[in-house]
Amino acid sequence: MAATILVVEDEPAIQELISCNLELAGHQALRAESAEQALEMVRAELPDLVVLDWMLPGMSGIEFARRLRADKRTQGVPLIMLTARAGEQDKLAGLETGADDYLIKPFSPRELNARVKAVLRRRAPQATDDAVEVAGLKLDPAGHRVTGNGTPLALGPTEFRLLHFLMTHSERVYSRAQLLDHIWGDHVFVEERTVDVHIRRLRKALEPTRHDRLVQTVRSAGYRFSAGT
Ligand code: CA
């Protein structure tokens, strides 16, 4: 599954290099030349990750990072900072604003890809291609396949995304509104009961191997994916 990655970099050559490199790795790259433009893009669509240059004309990368972290809607977006300076103070300031990782220019495309992968794995596992398995239920994002105890199960595209998100965030309760944000996108207008419809379809698809019991309703709170009872 491709991650949507916002690249905020004012130098066109570096912007191009990073974006193309991310696209080659299978991701979708959104490009912004300034923090102001990036803020506008984030308002329209929440990316899975932001690659952010420190030195930008106008609003600095640090200020942009602070704003992301100050807003409830954007505070969870993973962030990789890029900088030309190797100073220890800068590194501290970057990490203090909530950057998940830090890369010093010049860096190789390979190094960037490795960092992106590591941060996504840690912070947004539903945006990676890693197969997940819980209690005999296995989901393979690369092959778009789900099996229960080795038996293939047929899921629609929305149920697949829903299951992928739930399996990578197990043992936590998500409200209908939160699931809408994560699976349908936070600016898409869908009624909350749509979630119930897809949860029902998902359970039905998991019934043949009795994995539907892993998708649990938490009264007046939402849903939880859990291997326990
Ligand atoms: Ca720059």
Helix content class: 40-55%
CATH architecture of the largest domain: 3-Layer(aba) Sandwich
CATH topology name of the largest domain: Rossmann fold
Instruction: Describe the main β-sheet briefly.
Output: 5 strands, parallel
Task: Kindly name the structural category.
Answer: alpha/beta
- The N- to C-terminal Cα distance equals 30 Å
Percent in strands? 15-25%
Q: What is the topology, as strand order, of the major beta sheet?
A: 2-1-3-4-5
Number of strands: 12
Class of the largest domain, according to the CATH hierarchy?
Answer: Alpha Beta
Overall tally of structural domains: 2
Low-confidence runs of at least 5 consecutive residues: none
Rg over CA atoms: 19 Å
What ligands does this structure carry?
Answer: calcium ion
Write out the CATH superfamily name of the largest domain: Response regulator
Structure, described:
It is a single chain. This protein is an alpha/beta fold. It has two domains: 4-127, Response regulator (Rossmann fold); 132-225, Orthogonal Bundle (Arc Repressor Mutant, subunit A), CATH 1.10.10. It is built from eight helices and twelve strands. It has helices spanning 12-24, 35-44, 61-70, 88-96, 109-123, 157-168, 176-184, 193-206, and strands at residues 4-8, 28-32, 49-53, 79-83, 101-104, 132-134, 137-140, 145-148, 151-153, 173-174, 215-218, 222-225. Strands 2-1-3-4-5 form a five-stranded parallel beta sheet, sandwiched between helices. Helix 6 packs across helix 8 (193-206). The relative contact order is 0.11. The model has no long low-confidence stretch (mean pLDDT 90). Residues 10-11, 53, 55-56 line the site of calcium ion.
